[in-house]
Amino acid sequence: MAEDAFTEHRPLLFTIAYEMLGSAADAEDVLQESYLRWSAVDPDTVEHPRAYLVRVVTRQALNHLRAVRARREEYVGTWLPEPIRTAPDAGEDVVLAESVSMAMMLVLETLNPSERAVFVLHDVFGYTHGEIADSIGKAEVTVRQIAHRARRHVQARRRRFEPASDAKQEVVQRFLRAAATGEVQGLMDLLAPDVVAISDGGGKVVAARKPVVGADDVARFVLGVLRTTSTTRTRVEPATYNGMPAARFLTDGALDWLVAFEIHDGSITGIYGVRNPDKLHRADAVRTLDRGEHQPWKP
Prior knowledge:
Layout: H1 2-21, H2 24-39, H3 49-73, E1 85-86, H4 94-99, H5 102-108, H6 113-124, H7 129-136, H8 140-157, H9 166-180, H10 184-188, E2 191-200, E3 212-213, H11 215-229, E4 234-241, E5 244-251, E6 254-264, E7 267-274, E8 286-287
Parallel strand pairs: 1-8, 2-7
Antiparallel strand pairs: 2-3, 4-5, 5-6, 6-7
């Protein structure tokens, strides 16, 4: 049945769409559109359903990405990807965990739609240039050129990545304890000198409009945020989002802040705070991600 085939490959299809779009909501829209197209096809005439579905989802995601790019250029403040809750063992596939990390998703946002599609399909999911050419409607030689250009762009901007672990979650807990008690030095001890804090309120709630850089400024920024947004009714829960250790700030049971942490060698190098309510109302669902059977390209 068509529905069975789509359900079987849904984690892979969602992962591709999310990495191309940076939005779980947009990825779900793409999957819905793709399912409607798939349901109109006689599955008995499709020799390789997964390849067919990947091609449909890729084309739909490309169309969607081109449509939303102008909207994102007008975004109020700094744009962050819509966070997705991942299982604690998401870091076991390091390539997949890095590909959905906040830092990598921000790098992917700087690619044009074709570059992003080619990089995601080739370098993350391991599809050949020929397979990608068929999916995006371009000649294989053109796809090779796009892949080279995109890879060079990403390599120049990608940050060192370490997936979530118990040790990193402990760093986050120490950071939150220091923040709760107002210990500036305690925060400074856990922050890398060049740490960057990025907030996304979407112009709908209070958040920093620009990245905050440097341990001293970030420590004071964090304490200021907690003073103005936390109450006795605020509860903090540990979690894993986008393959990264994270903390959920709930006030009266409602998710108010979601903060993901980038940690290297025991020091926090990046803090990504999402407060835009449009990006939080789906943040409770744990997403199953999948790269399929292809082996990834190794740099």
